[in-house]
Design brief:
With 406 residues, this protein is mostly beta strands. Helices cover 5% and strands 39% of the residues.
Length: 406
């Protein structure tokens, strides 16, 4: 079944994908008086709504004359009972025999007479990433595809949380609360995000990041060869990014992982130069060579002000005094099993740990470095933020400190 110019979809009808996996139709969330057009899993309760067309402009739930149709200009349009356009695609098509079909992937596609896809719901994500869908950025055009949370469990209008990718190299996944970082997944090392500590046991074979520096594009998507549709990622109204999968034995959706899952995973909990370890009490400490910026706040358990250097770096002192005295050079403290900080610079021309150290030593602005075998040399010239200490996995970070006689 498909929607054609002569056959719209009404509130008492649904469109089902050929393999009976997904269903598209009108729905009213629990306890709501609003009506939306959406897509959900057909036979896998509780039925997760994976896409909503008119999340910004709901219909009233009593409107039974609304319809999802293809207009004379070839665009899909959702009309209310008064024939006002509530939602539409915005494509310029040259074909007058357009049709709209729901695929077994969950993609709702608008096709021309040659069955070429002119538009697909995968290009316009709601809060859910299905296998084959992409989220990402085009740094050149400024185009961004995010997952945007529902406002509440019964209100699909855009909520406070966005999840997506950055265009830096290597790219990182983030959840933002508005424009403020809320969670960071760490750098992509061509196989996994190194800030998600249990990701190495997770759906590794299915996670993909593609970055094209010339095109300016960075995309993330999930493949799932074993059971193509029965896994998805979504961002909840409370800002939790979850990977869900269908357990066919128990007939339930289970959470494979969720982030953030403790206070240390909330971005910047311990502030600049602070390290978070959820097994410690208190969970925050300053890096060696640093002290709390405000002792009062730190003791009260408000760590976001972070830490400051206990002793000025030698390389930042007045150079004329340096020349006249025999001064020891700055040193690098090693901290291990780290989720390395945000805002690092990747130096692709440096091929080993020694090169990374010597670059950092000869640049006074370099505050830390890390040589990650699967990525290469990363250096930091800004405050070290969002540092977390893991109990097993993690990377070595070398932090510049003023040389102290030991």
């Amino acid at each position: 079944y498909k929607i054609t110019v002569g056959e719209p979809l009404f509130p008492n009808q649904t469109l089902v994908s050929s393999g009976q996996i997904f269903e598209l139709g009108f729905f009213t969330p629990n306890g709501s008086e609003n009506q939306y057009v959406g897509i959900w899993y057909k036979n896998l309760p509780p039925s997760k709504i994976v896409w909503v067309a008119n999340r910004d402009l709901p219909l009233v739930h009593t409107d039974q004359s609304a319809k999802l149709m293809i207009g004379s200009d070839g665009n899909l349009k959702l009309m209310d009972g008064q024939l006002s356009i509530v939602w539409s695609t915005n494509v310029s098509s040259r074909s007058n025999s357009m049709s709209a079909t729901l695929l077994d992937t969950g993609n709702f596609v608008l096709q021309d007479a040659n069955y070429s896809d002119i538009w697909g719901s995968f290009e316009d994500p709601t809060d859910t990433l299905l296998p084959g869908m992409k989220v990402g950025v085009n740094a050149i055009t400024g185009e961004k595809q995010y997952l945007i949370s529902w406002r509440t469990d019964s209100d699909p209008s855009p909520g406070s949380f966005l999840s997506g990718m950055t265009s830096e190299m290597p790219p990182q996944p983030f959840t933002w609360s508005g424009s403020t970082p809320y969670w960071r997944g760490g750098q992509w090392d061509r196989l996994k995000f190194i800030g998600i500590k249990d990701m190495h046991q997770s759906y590794l074979n299915g996670f993909n990041v593609q970055q094209d520096i010339q095109q300016g594009t960075t995309y993330f998507w999930i493949d799932n060869y074993k059971n193509p549709c029965l896994v998805y990622i979504f961002v909840s109204p409370g800002g939790s990014l979850k990977l869900m999968y269908w357990d066919d034995g128990a007939k339930v959706w289970l959470t494979n992982w969720a982030r953030p899952n403790n206070t240390c995973e909330i971005y910047g909990t311990c502030g600049p130069f602070g390290v978070c370890n959820s097994l410690n009490s208190p969970i925050c400490r300053c890096l060696d060579g640093f002290v709390p910026k405000s002792n009062e706040e730190w003791k009260a358990g408000n760590w976001t002000g972070g830490c400051v250097r206990a002793k000025e770096l030698h390389c930042q002192k007045n150079t004329s005094t340096l020349a006249s005295t025999n001064v020891k050079k700055d040193a690098f403290w090693q901290v291990s099993q780290m989720k390395i900080p945000d805002s690092g610079d990747y130096l692709s021309s440096i091929g080993d740990q020694e090169g990374c150290l010597s670059w950092c030593l000869s640049n006074c602005s370099c505050l830390a470095y890390s040589y990650v075998s699967t990525i290469g040399c990363m250096v930091w010239t800004e405050d070290l933020i969002d540092l977390q200490e893991f109990s097993t996995v993690g990377e070595d970070l070398f932090v510049r400190v003023a040389y102290v006689e030991t």
